[in-house]
Design brief:
By secondary structure, the chain is mostly helical. It has one domain. It contains 3 helices and no strands. The relative contact order is 0.08.
Length: about 110
């Protein structure tokens, strides 16, 4: 048990360092979770776009043009263009038609 003021100060400084480490770990966990959620959204949207391209509902040149337009608009950065376009939307909100099996005509 600390008895001198110097010992108490050292104990408090040690506790402060421990708390700083715990805060840093908590922030890192929150950041990692946010990155995982964003990655999941981007992958899900990629699946939707790929399906639309494969089914012919979206032409590759139209998709490329739209991406370029978004990146040029208001001098947006890539980060703002990607997150702004996807915020609040989920792939479930986009109508996804089942893929036709190979060899069978689409209905």
């Amino acid at each position: 048990m600390p008895t001198t003021p110097q010992e108490r100060l050292e104990k408090l400084l040690k506790q402060e360092e421990q708390l700083k480490a715990r805060v840093q770990q908590a922030k890192a966990r929150i950041s990692a979770e946010a990155r995982k959620e964003r990655t999941g959204r981007l992958i899900a949207w990629g699946v939707v776009i790929e399906q639309k391209l494969n089914e012919g509902e979206l032409k590759p040149e139209d998709w490329a043009q739209e991406c370029q337009r978004l990146l040029r608009a208001n001098e947006r950065t890539l980060e703002r263009a990607l997150t702004g376009a996807l915020d609040g939307l989920t792939p479930e909100e986009v109508e996804i038609k089942p893929k036709a099996e190979k060899g069978k005509a689409k209905k």
